[in-house]
Amino acid sequence: MHQEEIPQSRRALRFRYPHRYAERVVHSSKVVAGALLALVLLAGCGQAGSEQQRTLTVLAAASLTESFDELGARFTAEHPDVRVQFDYQGSSTLAEQIKQGRPADVFASADEKNMAKVRELVGAPQSFATNQLTIVVPPGNPGGIGSLADLAGDHAVVVCAPEVPCGSATRKVTQAAGVQVKPVSEENDVKSVLQKVVAGEADAGLVYVTDATAAGEKVQVIDFPEARQAVNAYPIATVSGAPEPELAAQFVEFARGPVGREILTRHGFGTP
């Protein structure tokens, strides 16, 4: 096998001026080594930047979805090194997860009852919003619903399960009004009730005012005076042993402060 032929110009340089040829080789090696070092440093800087970002885990009632998404965006705008990770479910489900030891930083419940279930596992709860029920029906109101009493008729009505806050409020309202509703379905969170009405699977549903507001033209809203019999107070608290205790406390104050109040009010929540 023949060795690769070295061009004449390079042979001449190599044999006539060996020191200059060696300098060129050394210079090329330094350039390559410098480029590799730069790449390693850049990769290291990127990795260090990602490691510096902190994650704040917030467990929140499903009815807080739209308002807390906006609140989280505003919070991270002021804390660019923070990523807020939300988990929206029924308050009773989230309380049970906390009791089972799920790691989290903040818990925002749709009622005081479920917050009380974890009183030994959270900091001092503070009310930050209120909410109450309304009736939603599909556009055009095909079932002809006009009042709470109409829900006792022959209609397909969907409500929340009694163990979740919106279900507890439903029971209080119907009992106070003397209205017996026989729902075709009891859902684990208020968003599921709303979705069945939006999908046309029910003539009516009892949801929070805030969820009706978020649905916009997808539903028609029927307010009823009896709703004032069950106004839910929303408490928020840091979780004991939070991975990010300082950030958790800051988020709680942010939710209760001027920015949080403005966002929550715009989404239909009342003030505590």
Report on this model:
Strand 6, helix 6 (165-177) and strand 7 (185-187) form a beta-alpha-beta unit. By secondary structure, the protein is α/β, with parallel strands linked by helices. Helix 1 (8-16) crosses helix 2 (18-52) and helix 3 runs antiparallel to helix 10. Residues 1-6, 9-15 and 45-50 have low confidence and may be disordered. A five-stranded mixed sheet has the order 2-1-3-10-4. The chain folds into three domains: 8-50; 53-130 and 233-266, 3-Layer(aba) Sandwich (D-Maltodextrin-Binding Protein, domain 2); 133-229, 3-Layer(aba) Sandwich (D-Maltodextrin-Binding Protein, domain 2), CATH 3.40.190. It has helices at 8-16, 18-52, 65-78, 91-99, 112-116, 165-177, 190-198, 209-215, 245-256, 258-266, and strands at 54-61, 82-89, 106-108, 126-131, 133-137, 157-160, 185-187, 204-208, 220-222, 232-238.
